[in-house]
Amino acid sequence: MAPAEIAALLTVPLETVYAWRKERTGPPGFRIGKHLRYDPGAVRDWITTLTETALAAA
Questions:
Q1: Alpha-carbon span 22 to 17, nearest angstrom
Q2: Which of 8, 27, 34, 55 is the Cys-Cys partner for 43 at CB 3.0 to 4.6 Å?
Q3: Cα–Cα distance for residue pair 40/36, rounded to 1 Å
Q4: Total of domains in the chain
């Protein structure tokens, strides 16, 4: 997935996706040449972890 696809999926600004990468708080990404990409499975796992953490805190 491209960063713009993650931003659209989560309805957050593209800058937020880049900030997550810089802070190492978002899904793990990788480069293919100059392009930043994310494994869809890793993104789903990251979202699941966030959801479980939020539910446990509630």
A1: 9
A2: 27
A3: 13
A4: 1
Provide the token pair at 15.
């800058």
C-alpha distances out from residue 9 to 23, 33, 39, 45, Å:
20, 24, 14, 14
CB 29 within 8 A of CB 38: yes
pTM over 0.85: yes
3-state helix, strand, coil in the chain (%, to 5): 60, 15, 25
Torsion sign (Cα): 46, 47, 51, 54: positive
What is the distance between the alpha carbons of residues 3 and 43, in angstroms, rounded to a whole number? 11
Exposed / middle / buried, residue 22 (Cβ in 10 Å: 0-12, 13-18, 19+):
exposed
Q: Domain span at residue 9?
A: 3-57
